[in-house]
Design brief:
Structural class: alpha+beta
Helix content: 25-40%
Distance between the termini: 45 Å
Strand order of the largest sheet: 7-6-3-4-5-10-1-2-9-8
Radius of gyration: 21 Å
Strand content: 25-35%
Bound molecules: zinc ion
Number of strands: 12
Shape: globular
Length: about 290
Protein backbone atom coordinates (compact mmCIF):
# COMPACT_ATOMS: atom_id res chain seq x y z
CA UNK A 1 0.00 0.00 0.00
CA UNK A 2 1.25 3.49 -0.86
CA UNK A 3 1.86 5.80 2.11
CA UNK A 4 2.01 9.51 2.80
CA UNK A 5 3.70 11.01 5.85
CA UNK A 6 3.12 14.46 7.31
CA UNK A 7 5.93 15.84 9.43
CA UNK A 8 7.17 19.03 10.97
CA UNK A 9 10.80 20.10 11.16
CA UNK A 10 13.28 22.72 12.32
CA UNK A 11 11.40 23.33 15.60
CA UNK A 12 8.05 23.52 13.86
CA UNK A 13 9.09 26.15 11.33
CA UNK A 14 8.75 23.87 8.30
CA UNK A 15 6.06 21.49 7.12
CA UNK A 16 7.18 18.33 5.32
CA UNK A 17 5.10 15.89 3.27
CA UNK A 18 6.49 12.74 1.69
CA UNK A 19 4.83 9.91 -0.18
CA UNK A 20 5.66 6.67 -1.91
CA UNK A 21 3.27 6.33 -4.86
CA UNK A 22 4.48 3.21 -6.71
CA UNK A 23 1.02 1.62 -6.81
CA UNK A 24 -0.79 4.85 -7.66
CA UNK A 25 1.43 5.50 -10.67
CA UNK A 26 1.28 1.84 -11.76
CA UNK A 27 -2.53 1.92 -11.59
CA UNK A 28 -2.67 5.16 -13.63
CA UNK A 29 -0.38 3.65 -16.29
CA UNK A 30 -2.40 0.43 -16.39
CA UNK A 31 -5.68 2.30 -16.80
CA UNK A 32 -4.59 4.91 -19.33
CA UNK A 33 -1.93 2.87 -21.20
CA UNK A 34 0.41 5.84 -21.22
CA UNK A 35 3.75 6.07 -23.01
CA UNK A 36 6.88 6.12 -20.78
CA UNK A 37 7.34 9.91 -20.80
CA UNK A 38 3.62 10.56 -20.27
CA UNK A 39 3.68 7.98 -17.44
CA UNK A 40 6.47 9.92 -15.73
CA UNK A 41 4.57 13.21 -16.15
CA UNK A 42 1.27 11.77 -14.89
CA UNK A 43 2.95 9.97 -11.96
CA UNK A 44 4.70 13.17 -10.90
CA UNK A 45 1.48 15.21 -11.10
CA UNK A 46 -0.56 12.62 -9.16
CA UNK A 47 2.11 12.57 -6.44
CA UNK A 48 2.47 16.37 -6.28
CA UNK A 49 -1.30 16.80 -6.05
CA UNK A 50 -1.52 14.33 -3.14
CA UNK A 51 1.32 16.12 -1.33
CA UNK A 52 -0.19 19.57 -1.90
CA UNK A 53 -3.62 18.32 -0.80
CA UNK A 54 -2.13 17.03 2.45
CA UNK A 55 -0.98 20.56 3.33
CA UNK A 56 -4.53 21.93 3.49
CA UNK A 57 -6.61 21.57 6.64
CA UNK A 58 -9.89 22.10 4.92
CA UNK A 59 -10.75 20.90 1.43
CA UNK A 60 -12.86 18.23 -0.21
CA UNK A 61 -11.30 18.14 -3.64
CA UNK A 62 -8.04 19.52 -4.94
CA UNK A 63 -7.50 19.59 -8.69
CA UNK A 64 -4.17 20.41 -10.30
CA UNK A 65 -4.42 20.86 -14.03
CA UNK A 66 -1.82 21.59 -16.67
CA UNK A 67 -3.28 23.24 -19.74
CA UNK A 68 -0.34 22.95 -22.08
CA UNK A 69 0.71 22.98 -25.71
CA UNK A 70 3.22 20.10 -25.63
CA UNK A 71 2.44 16.67 -27.19
CA UNK A 72 0.65 15.44 -24.02
CA UNK A 73 -1.96 18.18 -24.59
CA UNK A 74 -2.98 18.48 -20.93
CA UNK A 75 -2.79 16.60 -17.60
CA UNK A 76 -5.29 16.64 -14.74
CA UNK A 77 -4.99 15.17 -11.24
CA UNK A 78 -7.61 15.31 -8.52
CA UNK A 79 -7.04 14.42 -4.86
CA UNK A 80 -9.55 14.08 -2.02
CA UNK A 81 -9.04 14.73 1.68
CA UNK A 82 -9.34 10.96 2.18
CA UNK A 83 -5.97 10.36 0.53
CA UNK A 84 -7.26 9.18 -2.83
CA UNK A 85 -6.19 10.57 -6.17
CA UNK A 86 -7.18 10.07 -9.81
CA UNK A 87 -5.98 11.62 -13.02
CA UNK A 88 -5.75 11.51 -16.77
CA UNK A 89 -3.97 13.01 -19.74
CA UNK A 90 -5.21 14.23 -23.09
CA UNK A 91 -2.83 12.22 -25.30
CA UNK A 92 -1.70 9.05 -23.47
CA UNK A 93 0.52 7.80 -26.31
CA UNK A 94 2.43 11.04 -26.97
CA UNK A 95 6.17 10.39 -26.76
CA UNK A 96 9.51 12.15 -27.15
CA UNK A 97 13.09 10.82 -27.20
CA UNK A 98 14.89 10.81 -23.84
CA UNK A 99 17.05 13.82 -22.99
CA UNK A 100 20.84 13.65 -23.42
CA UNK A 101 21.21 12.71 -19.71
CA UNK A 102 18.94 9.69 -20.28
CA UNK A 103 16.00 11.18 -18.35
CA UNK A 104 12.44 11.43 -19.66
CA UNK A 105 11.77 14.69 -21.48
CA UNK A 106 8.82 15.59 -19.25
CA UNK A 107 9.19 19.34 -19.85
CA UNK A 108 9.20 18.68 -23.60
CA UNK A 109 6.06 16.56 -23.48
CA UNK A 110 4.32 19.24 -21.36
CA UNK A 111 5.46 22.34 -23.26
CA UNK A 112 4.16 25.76 -22.31
CA UNK A 113 0.87 26.77 -20.76
CA UNK A 114 -0.84 27.31 -17.42
CA UNK A 115 -0.66 25.47 -14.09
CA UNK A 116 -4.02 25.59 -12.32
CA UNK A 117 -4.86 24.71 -8.73
CA UNK A 118 -8.55 24.41 -7.85
CA UNK A 119 -9.55 23.81 -4.23
CA UNK A 120 -13.14 22.98 -3.37
CA UNK A 121 -14.71 22.56 0.06
CA UNK A 122 -18.05 22.44 1.83
CA UNK A 123 -19.31 19.28 0.07
CA UNK A 124 -20.43 17.55 3.28
CA UNK A 125 -22.48 20.53 4.40
CA UNK A 126 -24.11 20.63 0.98
CA UNK A 127 -22.65 24.07 0.42
CA UNK A 128 -21.72 25.25 -3.03
CA UNK A 129 -18.89 27.49 -1.99
CA UNK A 130 -16.96 29.19 -4.75
CA UNK A 131 -13.83 27.16 -5.37
CA UNK A 132 -10.47 28.72 -4.74
CA UNK A 133 -8.66 28.93 -8.10
CA UNK A 134 -5.00 29.83 -8.45
CA UNK A 135 -2.94 29.79 -11.62
CA UNK A 136 0.59 30.52 -12.75
CA UNK A 137 2.40 30.04 -16.06
CA UNK A 138 4.14 26.69 -16.49
CA UNK A 139 7.76 27.71 -15.84
CA UNK A 140 9.53 24.39 -16.25
CA UNK A 141 7.17 21.59 -17.26
CA UNK A 142 9.21 19.19 -15.08
CA UNK A 143 6.26 19.43 -12.62
CA UNK A 144 8.17 19.62 -9.29
CA UNK A 145 9.53 23.06 -10.24
CA UNK A 146 6.03 24.10 -11.28
CA UNK A 147 4.64 23.21 -7.83
CA UNK A 148 7.48 25.23 -6.26
CA UNK A 149 6.76 28.22 -8.51
CA UNK A 150 3.02 27.99 -7.85
CA UNK A 151 3.55 27.90 -4.06
CA UNK A 152 5.88 30.91 -4.18
CA UNK A 153 3.80 33.05 -6.53
CA UNK A 154 0.26 32.15 -5.63
CA UNK A 155 0.47 31.15 -1.96
CA UNK A 156 3.63 33.10 -0.95
CA UNK A 157 5.12 29.90 0.50
CA UNK A 158 8.82 29.28 -0.15
CA UNK A 159 9.22 25.54 -0.72
CA UNK A 160 11.34 22.74 -2.09
CA UNK A 161 9.63 19.98 -4.06
CA UNK A 162 11.04 16.72 -5.43
CA UNK A 163 8.96 14.36 -7.55
CA UNK A 164 10.26 11.29 -9.34
CA UNK A 165 9.11 8.31 -11.37
CA UNK A 166 11.44 5.49 -12.44
CA UNK A 167 10.10 2.94 -14.92
CA UNK A 168 11.16 -0.60 -15.73
CA UNK A 169 10.43 -2.87 -18.68
CA UNK A 170 8.42 -5.52 -16.84
CA UNK A 171 5.10 -5.28 -15.01
CA UNK A 172 4.13 -3.32 -12.97
CA UNK A 173 6.38 -1.02 -15.06
CA UNK A 174 7.00 1.30 -12.07
CA UNK A 175 10.31 0.73 -10.30
CA UNK A 176 9.85 3.78 -8.10
CA UNK A 177 7.47 6.70 -7.72
CA UNK A 178 7.20 9.29 -4.97
CA UNK A 179 7.89 12.76 -3.79
CA UNK A 180 8.71 15.20 -1.00
CA UNK A 181 7.41 18.71 -0.40
CA UNK A 182 9.00 21.02 2.18
CA UNK A 183 7.15 24.24 2.99
CA UNK A 184 8.43 27.15 5.06
CA UNK A 185 5.89 28.35 7.57
CA UNK A 186 5.54 32.07 8.35
CA UNK A 187 8.47 33.25 10.45
CA UNK A 188 10.76 30.41 9.39
CA UNK A 189 14.46 31.12 9.07
CA UNK A 190 15.17 31.79 5.38
CA UNK A 191 18.48 30.04 5.79
CA UNK A 192 16.63 26.72 6.21
CA UNK A 193 15.35 26.61 2.63
CA UNK A 194 18.84 27.29 1.28
CA UNK A 195 20.13 24.44 3.45
CA UNK A 196 17.41 22.12 2.16
CA UNK A 197 17.97 23.11 -1.47
CA UNK A 198 21.66 22.38 -0.99
CA UNK A 199 20.94 19.02 0.70
CA UNK A 200 18.62 18.01 -2.15
CA UNK A 201 21.18 19.03 -4.75
CA UNK A 202 23.78 16.68 -3.27
CA UNK A 203 21.44 13.88 -2.17
CA UNK A 204 21.13 10.54 -3.98
CA UNK A 205 18.23 10.59 -6.37
CA UNK A 206 14.80 10.17 -4.78
CA UNK A 207 13.82 7.27 -7.06
CA UNK A 208 16.99 5.34 -6.11
CA UNK A 209 16.01 5.56 -2.44
CA UNK A 210 12.48 4.37 -3.25
CA UNK A 211 13.69 1.54 -5.48
CA UNK A 212 15.83 0.24 -2.64
CA UNK A 213 12.71 -0.02 -0.49
CA UNK A 214 12.90 3.38 1.20
CA UNK A 215 9.92 4.67 3.22
CA UNK A 216 8.36 8.15 3.14
CA UNK A 217 10.43 8.94 6.23
CA UNK A 218 13.60 8.03 4.32
CA UNK A 219 12.56 10.62 1.72
CA UNK A 220 12.13 13.20 4.50
CA UNK A 221 15.63 12.42 5.80
CA UNK A 222 16.91 12.73 2.24
CA UNK A 223 15.45 16.23 1.91
CA UNK A 224 16.19 17.50 5.42
CA UNK A 225 19.68 16.11 5.95
CA UNK A 226 20.74 17.10 9.47
CA UNK A 227 17.63 19.23 10.17
CA UNK A 228 15.49 17.67 12.92
CA UNK A 229 11.94 16.47 12.20
CA UNK A 230 8.96 14.87 13.90
CA UNK A 231 6.33 12.66 12.22
CA UNK A 232 2.78 13.93 12.84
CA UNK A 233 0.73 11.52 10.76
CA UNK A 234 1.04 8.58 8.42
CA UNK A 235 -1.79 7.53 6.13
CA UNK A 236 -2.46 5.19 3.25
CA UNK A 237 -3.01 6.75 -0.16
CA UNK A 238 -4.42 5.17 -3.32
CA UNK A 239 -5.57 5.73 -6.88
CA UNK A 240 -9.35 5.76 -6.65
CA UNK A 241 -12.06 7.11 -8.89
CA UNK A 242 -15.58 8.16 -7.91
CA UNK A 243 -17.29 6.67 -10.97
CA UNK A 244 -19.89 3.89 -10.76
CA UNK A 245 -22.45 2.07 -12.87
CA UNK A 246 -25.06 4.39 -11.33
CA UNK A 247 -23.17 7.49 -12.46
CA UNK A 248 -22.66 6.00 -15.94
CA UNK A 249 -26.46 5.66 -16.20
CA UNK A 250 -26.85 9.32 -15.21
CA UNK A 251 -24.33 10.26 -17.90
CA UNK A 252 -26.25 8.25 -20.50
CA UNK A 253 -29.50 9.87 -19.41
CA UNK A 254 -27.96 13.33 -19.85
CA UNK A 255 -27.42 12.59 -23.56
CA UNK A 256 -31.17 13.00 -24.06
CA UNK A 257 -33.95 10.75 -25.42
CA UNK A 258 -32.95 11.02 -29.10
CA UNK A 259 -29.41 9.86 -28.48
CA UNK A 260 -30.59 7.07 -26.17
CA UNK A 261 -33.08 5.89 -28.80
CA UNK A 262 -30.25 5.70 -31.36
CA UNK A 263 -28.10 3.66 -28.97
CA UNK A 264 -30.97 1.18 -28.51
CA UNK A 265 -31.54 1.00 -32.30
CA UNK A 266 -27.86 0.61 -33.22
CA UNK A 267 -26.39 -1.54 -30.45
CA UNK A 268 -29.19 -2.35 -28.00
CA UNK A 269 -26.86 -1.03 -25.32
CA UNK A 270 -24.00 1.38 -24.76
CA UNK A 271 -20.54 1.57 -23.27
CA UNK A 272 -19.82 4.63 -21.15
CA UNK A 273 -16.18 5.39 -20.56
CA UNK A 274 -15.03 7.26 -17.44
CA UNK A 275 -12.63 9.98 -18.59
CA UNK A 276 -10.82 10.05 -15.26
CA UNK A 277 -9.94 6.38 -14.84
CA UNK A 278 -10.81 4.80 -18.21
CA UNK A 279 -13.21 2.32 -16.58
CA UNK A 280 -15.80 1.06 -19.09
CA UNK A 281 -19.42 0.61 -18.02
CA UNK A 282 -21.71 -1.56 -20.16
CA UNK A 283 -25.29 -0.41 -20.18
CA UNK A 284 -27.91 -2.86 -21.42
CA UNK A 285 -30.74 -2.12 -23.83
CA UNK A 286 -33.24 -2.62 -20.99
CA UNK A 287 -31.44 -0.05 -18.86
CA UNK A 288 -31.48 2.41 -21.78
CA UNK A 289 -35.21 1.80 -22.29
CA UNK A 290 -35.90 2.46 -18.61
CA UNK A 291 -34.09 5.81 -18.94
CA UNK A 292 -36.54 7.04 -21.59
CA UNK A 293 -39.62 5.30 -20.18
ZN1 LIG B 1 -13.68 6.61 -13.12
Amino acid sequence: MDKLVHATGADGSIRVLAAITNEITAEAIRRHETSPTVSAALGRLLTGTLLLGATFKEFDRLTVKLECNGPVGGITAEATNEGTVRGYVKNPIAELPAKSNGKFDVSGIVGEGTFFVIRESGFELGLHRDPYIGSVPIVSGEIAEDFTYYLAKSEQIPSAVMLGVLLQNAEPFVAASGGVMVQMLPGANEHIVTMIEDTILHAPHLTEVIREGGSPEDLIKLALGVIDHEILEEREVAFKCTCSHEKALTMAEALGPNEIFLMIEDDNGAVINCGFCNEKYSITGDELRSLIA
